[in-house]
Design goal:
Elements lengths: L1 E5 L3 H13 L3 E5 L2 H10 L4 E5 L7 H10 L6 E6 L3 H10 L3 E5 L3 H14 L8 E3 L2 E4 L4 E4 L2 E2 L4 H12 L5 E2 H8 L10 H13 L8 E4 L3 E4 L9
Parallel strand pairs: 1-2, 1-3, 3-4, 4-5
Antiparallel strand pairs: 6-7, 7-8, 8-9, 10-12, 11-12
Amino acid sequence: MRILVVEDEPRMADLLRRALTEEGYSIDVAGDGPEAVWAATERSYAAIVLDIMLPGYDGIEVCRRLRDAECWSPIIMLTARDEIPDRVRGLDAGADDYLAKPFSFDELAARIRSLVRRGATPRPRILAVGDLRLDPAKRLAWRGAALLTLTPRELALLELLMRHPGEVLTRTRIIHHVWDPLYDGLSNVVDQYVGYLRRKIDDPRQPSMIETVRGAGYRLVEAPDKGAP
């Protein structure tokens, strides 16, 4: 399997190349952002190890450009230990994992093995189901051209549904994602928030995009075309 290492510091790039070669991977190295984007869009990689501090484009911009180009190779981003905002921005841009420097090569190898097992699953920055769109990083949602006004809980619920279109999500799973596993508030809180969300996203001339699956939970479906009978 081939891995792309994106690191502009020659000594670190060489250490990563040698350590990962010993793990049995074939390694390509890119030294700046534009080179990384070119390499990752020209050939398929089992994973990409991406430093956040790069010349040309930084790691976050590289990640964003790759996802916009529908390059879904798993990305692990290398960040400074105290730069939590950079980690958040990287994950929002489409990175799958991050590792703070300094790190052990054993941990890096374990993280890469996990990403390789997961595979190149599409993770677009803008989620879309029919004419419903959501930008998780900017916390904005639209139905058609209309910007929706959603609370943080409603956004979290919508994001969960949009990441699993057509899949039935149980109330327990929704609670764990939108609230937390120990939540012991109102037993019908999921139903309440589904109702709130329906009122904000649905076109009253069409069936609801959020279907109730009796005895199971809820699922998000694409609305029918307006011209359909």
